[in-house]
Amino acid sequence: xxxxxxxxxxxxxxxxxxxxxxxxxxxxxxxxxxxxxxxxxxxxxxxxxxxxxxxxxxxxxxxxxxxxxxxxxxxxxxxxxxxxxxxxxxxxxxxxxxxxxxxxxxxxxxxx
Amino acid sequence: xxxxxxxxxxxxxxxxxxxxxxxxxxxxxxxxxxxxxxxxxxxxxxxxxxxxxxxxxxxxxxxxxxxxxxxxxxxxxxxxxxxxxxxxxxxxxxxxxxxxxxxxxxxxxxxxxxxxxxxxxxxxxxxxxxxxxxxxxxxxxxxxxxxxxxxxxxxxxxxxxxxxxxxxxxxxxxxxxxxxxxxxxxxxxxxxxxxxxxxxxxxxxxxxxxxxxxxxxxxxxxxxxxxxxxxxxxxxxxxxxxxxxxxxxxxxxxxxxxxxxxxxxxxxxxxxxxxxxxxxxxxxxxxxxxxxxxxxxxxxxxxxxxxxxxxxxxxxxxxxxxxxxxxxxxxxxxxxxxxxxxxxxxxxxxxxxxxxxxxxxxxxxxxxxxxxxxxxxxxxxxxxxxxxxxxxxxxxxxxxxxxxxxxxxxxxxxxxxxxxxxxxxxxxxxxxxxxxxxxxxxxxxxxxxxxxxxxxxxxxxxxxxxxxxxxxxxxxxxxxxxxxxxxxxxxxxxxxxxxxxxxxxxxxxxxxxxxxxxxxxxxxxxxxxxxxxxxxxxxxxxxxxxxxxxxxxxxxxxxxxxxxxxxxxxxxxxxxxxxxxxxxxxxxxxxxxxxxxxxxxxxxxxxxxxxxxxxxxxxxxxxxxxxxxxxxxxxxxxxxxxxxxxxxxxxxxxxxxxxxxxxxxxxxxxxxxxxxxxxxxxxxxxxxxxxxxxxxxxxxxxxxxxxxxxxxxxxxxxxxxxxxxxxxxxxxxxxxxxxxxxxxxxxxxxxxxxxxxxxxxxxxxxxxxxxxxxxxxxxxxxxxxxxxxxxxxxxxxxxxxxxxxxxxxxxxxxxxxxxxxxxxxxxxxxxxxxxxxxxxxxxxxxxxxxxxxxxxxxxxxxxxxxxxxxxxxxxxxxxxxxxxxxxxxxxxxxxxxxxxxxxxxxx
Lengths: 112, 907
Known about the structure:
- The complex is a heterodimer.
- By secondary structure, chain A is α+β, with helices and mostly antiparallel strands.
- Chain A contains four helices and five strands; from the N terminus they run E-H-E-H-E-H-E-E-H.
- In chain A, helix 1 (12-24) packs across helix 4.
- By secondary structure, chain B is α+β, with helices and mostly antiparallel strands.
- Chain B has 31 helices and 22 strands.
- The longest helix of chain B is centred in the middle third of the chain and has 38 residues, at 360-397.
- The two termini of chain B are 64 Å apart.
- At the A-B interface, helix 2, helix 3 and strand 5 of A face helix 1, helix 2 and helix 4 of B.
């Protein structure tokens, strides 16, 4: 693993998953994991498996739902998609994350 | 809301967890296949593609575990697992499980039995509205000798309180009664109560059918329904099959027609604990029964009185107010002849909480029950120590298993939790069996209360409160006896335990085990000493010479309020009836007394020798009012002088007991002298007196209790016209000595029908029975404590046996080696026993100290035995040591029969 990869911050994975599903539509676990790696330009050290506890957590809250389906190359897989509640939640989560990010940025700027 | 959705989802997942596990596996598999395929497309060879995919995925097992922890209810999963595992363990050692369960059943059963009684008698809250507001109003007439004795009130006093006090509302009176009852062909006695019209309203209970009594029913001459009666839910169901048409039904109660107007709610048994009225009638029924206004009860105190405290009035405030009002209430309500009796002068008013109702049994049994509760607690501790020991032995035998499980990654907490579950699975069946045992023993325990009504009314069926306490008991036990083995198990060193292929060689927990035996022995010794002291007490009490003949003597209370004879004519009626009874075959003597002996009643009065009246202060003596033949009926000899005679010439005669003669005429013959009864009027400071000629001296007897030494007793004739005699004279006792109780009873009934047909039949009291029941408290204590001591002894034996057997087992190879090297059997035996003797010695020593303090704590219950009685202590210690050694010899004997070659071969 490269030196410049960073661990996924607790709680950010949920938002990444939600955002991914928002832009890509229904997707299976592997697809979500790959998408997150691609978007982050492979700078995140993500064990792909850790996506599953996150998916479970989101499902338990009712933000996403799952369904067994078939992929384009005819493989059975579980597809996740946003629920109505999840769509609403994205805005809230985004807003709160942006607030945190902005705060962090101000701290970093002032201490420079 | 998030957490709720999460919880629901978890619960759902828990139920279908097997299916979900399969799905998860499938999902992971498809994930890896997607990844492998992508890697392959990038040109990796098949093997590398697969390996890279797995690497990118991360630790499969860890993720699965994390996923599962989040998905279902992992705690439940774990518990289910533990339960299954524990069940396997228990099945594997059924003998051990049986011993554990039986031990616990005995311990928990004893606790449940005692607690059921405690709960029923002391703790059960009445099923009424706001029970916390209820108080009982009574008159405290306790003296230095009779602590906590109190008397009920009567209507004039209740009315005075209603008028003057601002502390209460809803004051109501209650008096239990047995009525002859007729309904159609049914003709039986019924246990009932007469209650104020507002009683149900004040209690806030609702009828199960019809209506309850109201103040309108409690009017002279009856209410809108005539004489209204409310029946209990119990007889409504049992006798009338819960038929609603029972409302309006006409019944006959003591020859008076009444109408059933309603049914009391299920579970309502009134406010007097251990009494369960099946019929409730208004207080005014008393007037119908006795043919005179209820208020004119001549100062008799007969109504248990309850009230609700007004809002924002505390019980202390109410009591303070009543104490200032009380003297004037007495002045207004008590007949002048009674007002200045010492007992009334000293009386105080009391306001006691009545959330749990009231019972006269409480004064007698509260402390003994607490004492028993402590003793069963000790028994339970012995049980736990015992099981701890057994479990430790098993735990050390299972050390390898623990080590393996730990090596496989079980956390220490997990191991402890598993052991705890195992303990619980033994404790809960033990508790169940215990509850059953307690239930079975219930009637037997109740019988020992020596109170027939309580025996019927108290339910020993375990209820919710009792069951929850029992379950709590079981859990506590499991914690207690599971703690030690769990502790040692969790401190097993994986490494050494695994390397040591022979589990016997380990010594884990032996220090703890050595603690349990002295602990058990000490507790058992304490129980044995306490039980022996109490046992000696009851034996001495029952063989104590009371001075009375008890065999074939009966007491029969009279109720002559309705006979036309009053005053002297009534006294003459008593004389005639006693004489008539003696004419019946089988009746030896019959007499009359105001106070039958040893029944707990106590009349005292002040007397002085008339010749010394100038300078001597009057002294208090017990008093009884009697007719001729009293002494011969009860087998008391008259030492000098003569008996009283049933005629007017003896109106001013009296007889003294020896002790009274010594008290009033020290060093001089009392016969023929004059004794002066002095009545102080404390408010006016005036003293009036009445002189009696002493015509006889009777042998000393006890008076109201077997515990006292014979007090001075002054016997006055019923012809003397004592103030309270003329009022309460309608309720004296016949005392009959006959060939048999039946003969006495039939003579009484025949005489009653002949000479006082308007009076109710009252069942006779056998003196031999009431004599035994007068020490019912001590009997309960001694029998129960004896049983607990036996139990403790037995359990300790099992404990000692277990320890020694385990030690011998553990040291088999060592003993084999010693024997191979030439140790004699005697030496091996001594080796095994030496340890036991040491532990026993520690136990007996600490137990002796504990017993010393325990004995001092119960000295109030002892009779003619000192709490520190050296013989009892020595015998108890000997008994314990002997039994303990006996328990140890069995396994020690096995040690000396060890075959050295065999023992060494297994090493």
